[in-house]
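Aim 2 progress update. The chain analyzed this quarter is reproduced below.
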Amino acid sequence: MKLKHCHNINDLRRLAKRRLPAPMFHYIDGGADDEISLRRNTDAFSDYELLPRTLIDVEHINTQTTVLGQDLDWPVIVAPTGMSRLFHHDGELAVAKAAQNFGTMYSLSTVSTCDIETVGKATVGPKMFQIYIHRDRGLTSEFVQRCKDSGYKALCLTVDMPVAGNRERDLVTGMTIPPRFSPSSILSFALHPYWSANKLFRKKIELANVVEKIRAAKEPMGSIMEYANSQFDRSVNWTDAEHLVQQWHGPFAIKGIVTADDAIRAAEIGATAVVVSNHAGRQLDGAPATIDCLPSIVDAVGGRVEIILDSGIRRGSHVVKALALGANACMVGRPYLYGLGAAGQIGVEHALGLLRSELERTMALLGCSDIGAISRAHIQHCNARIGHS
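Predicted structure tokens:
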């Protein structure tokens, strides 16, 4: 299977599965517990039907929009995902360059394998930093200042990870961070010599943003993830989030919102956007599909904050459905990670290209020549149709 034969995101998923050792692939692909929320995130899009309008001029399709103060060529933001060099040796830099080439915003994770400054210098495209409030509040403040100094345009606070979710696939495959050649994974590594050679002979995979603090820690860490987990603060509350909003003083998103009440609270503390997300099904299994949460959140905030839908998107038509229900934009994570694992930067660009082509085609078939024209008049829940039949 070659990249040119990948006609959709699921094809890219299959190619990534072939090219990555099993622990790496399943780290991308898996979710928490029984993976119910993981599956529902995507499946729930099928419960919504698009209602096309005909005999409308769609000769020219305009996908441009403005989100988080940034002019974007299309309403799909590259989501923050941790440890990208696990999937390709070019990691975050490959993804940031692909995002720039596709005229959209790149989001760098706190637990990235390339540091804030290096990514900041790598491209001129708009960048957002995804942050957690750490037990060491000084470390959080340090991240904020580093982002300001490096030209990041927005900050994204993730709030749905007081503890790591129960990702059982990683236990089965022997996944560790950093990767180790263990008895449970050695065969898979041996069957993927290209990935394994890059792992052995290139720069060590580390949590680049805190590597010096890890090295300076008084107590030895069993793995670099132990350091990160030790910094997650379960006592974080809305007052802490409000303080961070004020400290940043710019476009600010809160990620991990699935209820209208929390979206309202985010607006009240000064956030400029909420990301409707259940961490792609990797945290609380049994959380609702995010597309199902969207209408009530849109109605509750009444335009006071921008709304970005995350989790489950696999098609450009999914983006259109989210926009029709009131989202300002969407975030994608797994789709581009499949591309990264399959072929590095060109794989990421292939994933983004597929989604953008599908988005434009869906808009034309829907009878919308401009992103701003997509509305709830273009969508219905299938239960509504059945109820009126």
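The chain has a mean pLDDT of 93. The longest strand covers residues 252-257. These observations will guide the mutagenesis experiments scheduled for the next reporting period.
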